[in-house]
Amino acid sequence: MEDNPLPSFIKSGIYQLNLTAVFIDPVRLLNRSYTRFRVSPSTYYSRFFDSTNSTQSTNSTQSPKASEDSRKRKRKQKKKNKVQSLNEREQIADRRHQEVKPFLLKAHEALLEATDILKVLRNLRNDGCVVRECKELSKESSELSLMELGGVWQAPMYEIVLNYYHDDKTFQNEGFPLAHSIEQRVTPVFNNLVANEGNDDIEAELFNHKYIIPKRSCFYMSDLQQIDSLIPADSDCGFNLIVIDPPWENGSARQKVRYPTLPNRYFLSLPVKELCHTSGALLALWVTNREKLRDFVENDLFPKWGVTYAASFYWLKVKANGILTGELDLFHHRPYECLLLGYCKGKDTHSGKLARMNPIPDNRVFISVPGDYSRKPPIGELLLDYVPGPIPARCVELFAREMIAGWTSWGNEPLHFQDSRYFVSK
Ligand code: SAM
């Protein structure tokens, strides 16, 4: 481990807390995909930085460590009251939780001891912003519903305009200001692979809305019914890192209706094997803490996809003051989520090859302050060491709502968080 990991965190957005836990700032990680724009921290961190929280973090007489101790006491008490009333499935879930809890607590303790990163954490929302830029995302400003747009019969005719800026340096040395020219490319926005192959991010226009497209990235916006169009003709052009965050059915997603959910059986038909690179792929699947779902993934989904389970990573969620976003032992609202990792064999993967890969450590924990509802932190980089096949890895995110340099994003709204209202210009 580095002596002082702070300077490298400032650049990379990743802070190694100990051998098994890291703190990440998704804004810094995402900003590595942009040269002309940057992600606005105030719009990314739309929750857990409200005035009550920030007052707590700056004025509270109790240190984060002391309040964590009092929370631990409450947790113990709650657990005592709870355990007898759990049904069989909940008991299995509770056992799973008890197994992972020491890793989560150890990671959280490491964060609370890292005073340098705690200071940075409190200011993440205002990082590098001038006041003008840090205003709240206007609640009134309308957002284009990409899902609705993609569902109408005219959808195949809708086009997106990609604006490429070129610097004209011809007269720069003669004292003239740098001139720019804009090249426009127009292409269908739905059921079409739209790519920015350039080394700069670009602005795109769709129905008077502006979207920022990262450098060297592409998206395919379609319904699940058209996902087969993403399958490469040749598996050498397949993906060797596949991240999936399915719209699982669950009470809270239904309540908040931010996006439509799908019954589990729909995910059985995802063409994971067909998307896989010739030399195999590492697959990372976000799951909820419901035991019924874990059971479905282990016994139905992974076998159907041809995926062999390898390890579990955990995303632990904290507020701006370093405290967990909820009680660790609260049964239905755990302040952590699980990322299941597994390997998918490619056409040419002979059995010994994947076995020789860097073994994936189990129970790694990454800690961050959550962004918008259901928005996952960009964890691709934490997985790269375990990806089989060519370097740089060919990466795809399924059911994506944002884009990242070097990745293909597929889903019915991969442009959602690319809306220019989530960005500020550099
Ligand atoms: N990982 C994303 C993030 O961090 O923001 C969140 C993904 S969210 C859990 C699931 C996504 O799947 C939503 O964007 C939802 O609109 C999309 N989705 C739901 N039904 C779909 C369908 N039939 N076809 C394609 N995408 C769908």
What labels would you give this structure?
17 strands, about 425 residues, eleven-stranded mixed sheet, alpha/beta, binds S-adenosylmethionine, globular, single chain
**First and last CA, distance:** 32 Å
List of distinct ligands in this structure = S-adenosylmethionine
Count all strands and give the number.
17
Largest sheet: 11 strands, mixed
Helical percentage: 25-40%
Which structural class do you get from the secondary structure elements?
A: alpha/beta
Describe this structure as you would to a colleague.
The protein is of the alpha/beta class. It is built from 13 helices and 17 strands. The protein has helices at residues 6-12, 26-31, 41-44, 51-59, 64-82, 88-113, 115-122, 146-151, 251-256, 272-275, 291-305, 351-355, 380-383, and strands at residues 14-16, 21-24, 37-39, 159-168, 179-188, 193-196, 202-206, 209-213, 217-221, 241-244, 281-287, 307-317, 336-344, 364-368, 395-398, 407-411, 423-425. It has an 11-stranded mixed beta sheet. A 4-stranded antiparallel beta sheet has the order 5-4-7-8, with no helix packed on it. Strands 3-17 form a two-stranded antiparallel sheet. The structure holds S-adenosylmethionine (SAM). S-adenosylmethionine is lined by residues 147, 223-224, 245, 247, 259-260, 262, 374-376, 399-401, 411-413.
Give a short summary of the structure.
This protein has 426 residues and is an alpha/beta fold. The chain is 28% helix and 23% strand.
